[in-house]
Write a structure and sequence with these properties.
Elements lengths: L18 H14 L4 H7 L6 H12 L10 H14 L3 H6 L6 H39 L7 E4 L4 E4 L3 E3 L10 H10 L8
Antiparallel strand pairs: 1-2, 2-3
The structure holds a DNA duplex (21 and 21 nucleotides).
Length: 192
DNA sequence: AAGTATACCAACCGCGAGCGC
DNA sequence: GGCGCTCGCGGTTGGTATACT
């Protein structure tokens, strides 16, 4: 059974913070420092729980907070860090001065996750198209069109520039073989 | 202009970890 | 070791603004 969190479910008020509440909170933190949040809430005479005070401070009132307008550079960094760290927002935020974990999480959920999904979808379509091209070359023996076979080197030439090097692979060139090849050498797809 | 859908973001909630008693 | 308190994190909710029909 889940442990009850004494800082939750208090009788404290909820909802948006008023400017007056912000002012009182900042005043108390200036004196006592940003710790012992329950005490801070009491000292400030706020009808808020300590947890709520902490959140307000961390995400809004803390000095040096940057708000809004995430730059392209920052966005790029978020994407790369998310790739590396996953949903570890506080770690990601730690790399972006002035940004809070909550802001980054919100930004990811409202902007970047959609963007990423679109990219993935596009990637998949493009990969499927490439595989279909390969499949046509192999299953239909279709060395017509843009592809040719060089009998001396045993290579498949696709288009003007691309050479599919078969010299290190055994015939027959079938789909099973090809899928194994693709798993091993995804780079090849980029050529087709 | 009014109603509805969607996007955005501040705030809330549940949970786990750390610490002192 | 057990308990209560505090803190921090990540997921989720809900209110408001904006876009769309």
């Amino acid at each position: 059974m889940a442990r009850l969190d004494s800082s939750n479910r208090s009788e404290a008020s909820r909802g948006a913070w008023a400017a007056e509440e912000d002012r009182k909170l900042a005043q108390v933190i200036e004196i006592h420092g940003p710790r012992r949040w329950k005490l801070i809430a009491a000292k400030a005479g706020l009808d808020r729980c300590g947890k709520s005070c902490r959140l307000r401070w961390m995400n809004y009132l803390r000095p040096n907070i940057k708000r809004g307008n995430i730059s392209d550079q920052e966005e790029d960094l978020i994407v790369r860090l998310h790739k590396l760290l996953g949903n570890r927002w506080s770690l990601i935020a730690g790399r972006l001065p002035g940004r809070t974990d909550n802001e980054i999480k919100n930004y990811w959920n409202s902007h970047l996750s959609k963007k990423m999904k679109q990219n993935e979808k596009q990637k998949k379509v493009s990969r499927d198209e490439k595989i279909e091209t390969l499949s046509n070359i192999i299953t239909k023996g279709s060395l017509e069109g843009p592809s040719t076979r060089d009998d001396e080197t045993n290579n498949y030439n696709v288009g003007k520039e691309v050479v599919f090097d078969c010299s290190s692979h055994e015939e027959p060139l079938n789909m099973e073989w090809m899928s194994k090849f693709l798993e091993l050498d995804e780079r090849w797809l980029d050529f087709v």
